[in-house]
Write a structure and sequence with these properties.
The complex is a heterodimer.
Chain A lengths: L10 E4 L3 E9 L2 E7 L9 H16 L10
Antiparallel strand pairs in A: 1-2, 2-3
Chain B lengths: L1 E4 L3 E4 L6 E2 L12 E6 L6 E6 L6 E5 L14 H6 L8 E8 L8 E11 L4 E4 L12 E2 L10
Antiparallel strand pairs in B: 1-2, 3-4, 4-5, 5-6, 6-7, 7-8, 8-9, 8-10
Classes of the chains: A alpha+beta, B mainly beta.
Chain lengths: 70, 148
């Protein structure tokens, strides 16, 4: 993994059209601004992982008992 | 073709009805071919069944049965990827996480399954929202909405 040090207000460029700016640092929180083409999907990693987990949880149901109440 | 389904035994599906998820779905990237089989004629529930893996069968439902005002913007690159030409061709489903009772069961509205009925191309989107309760949205008959 490439590790770089930046100060608040400084920016990284990923290729030509993606910019990642460190807006501010407050204790253990870093506020980040991202300028990128709209087509680029940006997620918090936890969100994507939560969806993977939920898909797996969805498969754990082995019968349709609950739906009988519908 | 005959496929083995998780919930409904062997089911005959037409090959032209097979839905392709080019990227698979999160957590199941090598599952790309699914069939969508209605559970029955009276409920909003369907089975999204992997063609090749019997145990990969999701219960899904139309979200509007539970959240009448559910809506989101489909990003332009997804419109292109799914070759969507008109909104009427787009069908949206949420994956259910079923528990022992309906009250404990939820539907995933944070990551809806979007299907282009014309091209049979589909994907599970991740909505850019902070509303994390959409991940496990309660399944209840929407009093204000229709159950269709």
């Amino acid at each position: 993994m490439l590790v770089l040090t930046r100060k608040p207000g400084e920016t990284l460029m990923l290729g030509e059209d993606i910019q990642v700016k460190i807006i501010s640092v407050d204790g253990d929180q870093v506020k980040i601004g991202i300028d990128a083409p709209r087509a680029l999907k940006i997620y918090r990693r936890e969100v994507y992982e939560a969806i993977q987990q939920e898909n797996k949880a969805a498969l754990e149901a082995s019968d349709l008992r609950a739906l009988k109440e519908w | 073709m005959n496929i083995q389904t998780k919930f409904l035994g062997a089911v005959d599906v037409k090959e032209e009805a097979i839905i392709t998820f080019p990227e698979g779905i999160p957590g199941f990237h090598d599952e790309t071919q699914f069939a969508l089989i209605p559970l029955n004629e009276t409920s909003p529930f369907l089975v999204l069944q992997s063609v090749k893996t019997e145990k990969v069968g999701f219960m899904v439902a139309t979200p509007y049965a539970f959240k009448a005002d559910y809506s989101f913007d489909l990003p332009q690159d997804d419109v292109v990827q799914l070759a969507i030409e008109q909104p009427e061709d787009v069908f949206v489903y949420g994956i259910l996480t079923l528990k022992d009772t309906l009250v404990e069961s939820t539907i995933n509205l944070l990551a809806p399954v979007v299907i282009n009925e014309k091209t049979k191309l589909a994907k599970q989107l991740v909505l850019p929202t902070e509303d994390e309760k959409l991940l496990r949205y309660p399944i209840k008959k929407a009093a204000e909405g229709s159950a269709k």
